[in-house]
Amino acid sequence: MAAHIEVVPVAAGVVVTEDVDHDDAVNNSVNGSKTDEKMFSKSEEGVSYSSDEGAGIKMRKELGLLDGVGIIVGIIVGSGIFVSPKGVLEYSGSVGMALIVWAVSRIYIMDSGSIYPTVWGTMIPRSGGDYIYIYEAFGPLPAFLYLWVAVVIIMPTANTVIALAFANYILQPLFSHCDTPPDVPVRLIAAAVICFLTWVNCTNVKWATSFQNVFSMTKIFALIIIIATGIYHMGTGNTENFRSPMEGTNYGIGKIGAAFYQGLFSFAGWNYLNFVVEEIKDPYRNLPLAILISVPLVTFVYFMTNVAYFAILTKSEVLASNAVAVSLGDRMLGVMGWTMPFFVACSTFGSLNGGIFASSRLFFVGAREGHLPQALALINLKSFTPTPALIFLGFMTVFMLVSSNMQKLINYIAFTESLFILMSIAALLWLRYKQPNRKRPIKVWIGFPIIFFIICLFLVTFPVFVSPVELGVACVIISAGVPVYYFAIYREMHSKTLLGAIDNVTKMCQILWMSMPSKEE
Fold first, then answer.
1. C-alpha angle 25/27/32, rounded to 5°?
2. What is the DSSP code string of 473-490?
3. Is 291 helix (H, G, I), strand (E, B) or coil?
4. How far apart are the first and last CA of the chain?
5. DSSP character for 386?
6. What single-letter DSSP state applies at residue 266?
7. Distance from C-alpha of 292 to C-alpha of 296, rounded to nearest angstrom
8. Which of 122, 199, 247, 249 has its CA 20 to 30 A from that of 354?
């Protein structure tokens, strides 16, 4: 079967290959033999050829500034802002404390969003996000533990929560006579949308980013409707919900920490653009700009959205609702109340698409570094997407549908993600100390990462007293990564049998998905 690989844009240049027979290319690449195929980069300076032994293909650099903003906004504004207000209020105990939590969360995300991705992403312009940064500072074992937890908990669970929220909002109008839609249809719809978006991301990067841009605008429009409704409601003198704002406040440190978990879940995804750095055009410019545009926009919109929720709905109504935005729509939008479930479904759909797009790159980079099976580091010859990594992520996400309890899933995610963000900031401080003269295109005052480190330490430590079971399970899963690393990674280097089996799986995946190994930037 002949395959023609066309000119592929890669930032300032292109990666080109000649016409080759696909089966020969695959077989030669997995067997390590040389072929007549040549790969080269054409840039303004000229043409530079790569050696046959190091030949591979790269994912296209197709993401511009608008795509970067769309990815961040699209991932952050997902199910969280429509689900988490209930959890924040439940743990904080009062409307006033809930708004304080949202305000401090905004400051936290503004701080982290301005220093963390911009500094890391320009100092180490490689895809993989926290995994690569921890690897760079602390070595392979801590990096593998992050990857292990990302595979087992963070990425698939986060995507599962969003898919479940999408299914709940889609089915809400059909089961309006019930408090919540039946569990089985919810899981089936969630599984279907996961599979569909996995297919889209496998097929074409431009399709995926176009979806992201359209749904990002849709969800911002939905939040603007909520904010405008809240302002109108308060403008007509309805401010009774704010008359005793601190009544019922839970002042326990553990409770406040758990409230922050729920609030910060709404901002999950602020660092996901770092997972796809190698696909961004001019990352030194577009990565910081995309973050500095999108993070302040989203944090402001989120805070105002919560003010609108609490202005219109009473404390008991928020706590009784599984879909706060829908309850607001039913109260204020009259016959147009149906639009709110539609907008929320669009929001979660776009967020899930962005989550699949970005998090699959983490698995891809982990495999390229030798911490996951090499089959996950293959790139499809036609679509230039990491198809095996996307399919693996899709399978893990569907598997997580064994649980549909979103509150517990959120606690699992928040604890593990906070722990490894803490490690990433520790890595940033460590490299600042060990490599003071390293090139840093963007450098910030050392006090900002130190403050961020202290906040992360609080978020990791105090909620243990509130949710010991969930966090205990998360710690066990993290610890289980140590023997997995030893037997599956360290010993693999010395096991010819295991290496042979992995090589056979890689060959099969190359033929099955028309893929070849990647060539790192």
1. 95
2. HHHHHHHHHHHHIIIIII
3. helix
4. 29
5. -
6. T
7. 7
8. 122
Of 369, 370, 366, 371, nearest in space to 389 by CA = 366
pLDDT surpassing 80 at residue 423: yes
Tell me the mean pLDDT in the region 367-381: 84
- Count, residues in the chain: 521
pLDDT at 256: 82
Q: How far is CA 385 from CA 27, 65, 407, in A?
A: 20, 20, 33
Q: Is the model more confident about 193 or about 461?
A: 193
Tokens of 63: 């993401």
3-state SS, one letter per residue, for 110-159: HHHHHHHHHHHHHHCCCCCCHHHHHHHHHCHHHHHHHHHHHHHHHHHHHH
Cβ neighbourhood burial of 469 (10 Å; 0-12, 13-18, 19+): exposed
Question: What pLDDT digit, counting tens, does each position of 54-79 carry?
Answer: 445 676 787 888 888 888 887 787 66
Residue 197 has pLDDT above 90, yes or no: yes
Which H helix or E strand runs over 516? strand 515-517
Residue 371 has pLDDT above 90, yes or no: no
* Percentage of residues in the chain having pLDDT higher than 70: 79
- Return d(Cα 473, Cα 491) in angstroms, integer: 27
pTM (predicted TM-score): 0.72
Cα 365 from Cα 377, distance rounded (Å):
7
Residue 500 and residue 513: Cα distance in Å, rounded? 20
Tokens of 91: 């743990």
pLDDT of residue 405: 61
CA distance 285 to 11: 12
**Which DSSP symbol is given to 57?**
B
Consecutive H or E run containing 21 = strand 20-21
